[in-house]
Write a structure and sequence with these properties.
This protein is mainly alpha-helical. It has a domain of 51 residues. Helices cover 37% and strands 0% of the residues. It is built from three helices and no strands. The termini are far apart. It comes from Microthlaspi erraticum. This is Retrotransposon Copia-like N-terminal domain-containing protein.
Amino acid sequence: MAAPPQYLDQYENPYFLHSFDHAGLILVSDRLQSGADFHSWRRSVRMALNVRNKLGFIDGNDSETSADHRDAGSWSRCNDMVATWL
């Protein structure tokens, strides 16, 4: 009997970019205007990145791969995308 196909949750891969993830995406509606609203903005940004499994790009958990690693291109694209959102 053949083994059932394995379910692959692409959203668990931090390098996965959904078709809705684009450079013009407004990650949070609150714009950082002054230092006074930094904490609420920071919380909103961290939550938005966490639900997209991209929080590691700003907190250091998904650090840059070496240039010869097979995921180097994927890491670079995702890192650049996260940077455009901020």
